[in-house]
Known about the structure:
By secondary structure, this protein is mostly beta strands. A six-stranded mixed sheet has the order 2-3-10-9-5-6, with no helix packed on it. A six-stranded antiparallel sheet has the order 11-13-25-16-17-23, with no helix packed on it. The chain starts with a helix and ends with a strand.
Amino acid sequence: MKTSKKMLSLLLIAAMLVSVLCMGVSATGYDEVSIGTGEPVTINWTTATTGTVVNVDASTNYIPKSFLLWARNGLTVKVGTTELTANGVGDTDSAYTVYTDATNEITITVLNGETVAYTITCPHYTTAITGSYPSAVNGYLPVGQFARHNSFGWGTLFTDNTNKNPDTNTPKFLDGYVSTGVSLGMAGGYVQFDMGDNPIENNANNPYGIDFIVYGNAFVGNPEAAGVMVSNDGIKWYTLAGSRHYMNGTKWDQKISYVRIEGSEQRALKSGTFTADGVYYSKNYNSPSEQTQSAINAAISAANWDVVPASGTGSALNLSYWPEWATRVVNNTAQEEYYGNVWKLGTDSHIPAVASTENNAGVNWDKADTTSTVPNGAEVITYSGLTLVPDDTQVLGSNPTQAQMTDVYQWGYADVRVNGSAYGTAINPYASAASVGNGGDGFDLSWAVDANGVPHPMTSAKYIRVYSAVLFNAGIFGETSAEVCGLYRTSNTITGGAGTTAVPTITVAGQTITLDMLESKGNNVYYFDAFGGAMPRDIAVTATAATSTAKVLINGSSTTTFTTQSTTRGVQILVQDGNSAPFILVVR
């Protein structure tokens, strides 16, 4: 820990112990040297001191143009004969950005004094493959009004507007925008994209730092916010923190379960709560280890259930909202749904089960009988690792304008901005209100954060999950449900690079913050653990841009000053100028 940081923390809150800045290392057994968790690559150690950089996903040989290497303090890191400078120095470990070569293998050496302690080889980086769209879809599972047979195509994954024949059918989205995409249903409902051997890169040539764009079917006054998570291995996931991420009312790392209840026997599992057939939700349901009906019933009875929050008096949602594994009515081919075919596609869908581990974007479908074509017993769908935001009507109250409704979600959420038709062309998400102009919803891999809101900018992402981020029932209009019509990597790159925004002047509690006090996360993203993650109230934070043309946003609002409240979990300062990628600092 640096003395300047310790002194500043004492000035900020005298009664608080100075927090220890812990830099996590992901390797097991070789903790002195490792590649950062969440990167697309890791080290395959062949001996105790020699290794090779390989992709975390055995199905691809993709190597990025750069990655973060961690090394124990006191060690020296070289690429070839060039000594690297650490991005940030913690109490035990330091982070280094390693740039791979276009054509040749590089050799990374880690020295203890003059002695080579570790030798790591890394293949040349993978040249991007031509193609703007996903190469595959890993899965799709909604719970909502369009999770039914007569959904006008919005509840089906395949191009023939069915969920049948997954081995031979073609998913939507693989050739770009589709006018009838998919509806994601209530909070947690998802479609997951796989970029294959051409992961989306955190590209310095992309304007405004935008790496990919998601297109929904939004119009001004009808935002239905979807969150986005990214991963390189399909196991550890990171949330792309949108403008509301650090605002009050946003809930991190949530788990939502939905239960299908039909008939008196199933209603008796929670008498007094299950007063009618339909769909209910829970925040504390725990999947049983055995997928027997008795075990599922016991888990349902042990949990607390409620009706989905609504604009008026809530009630159990109609059974038509439930995505049937096959069909609801015996021998009725007109009512075939077959979500059992598409919730996870392939032998390894890269959609993990729900777990208690951090950054787990899990999905469970607790269903004892998966062979019958009609429902047979209560069943539960659970989504975990969600970041949930309030509905725009909950934020604004009565009689908002159409523009105000859309502007609740400035950036970082899909199905908010109007699409336009320039697919793949990134627009500046910070320059104007979301209700102004069109161009879909762009996303920057530098927005990535872990389950505790700590920045973790990604150098690339192979898997992208888009999911409904609002739990709200709008009565006769149905649930707030995001729609997805396409995903494109950014195409309007800038020759020579878009640049990065200059470091602003920042104060916390009247004290000026300098870069040497911050932990660099790479990609112009920084972290300041001033309070050990627990933000005291009434702390004033200011940010002044280095140029008059730059936009300053603190916790998603256009302002240069912010005062913490008792509910503040972190302060995000984002400054963006011209075509440049933003400067981002999170203070906790």
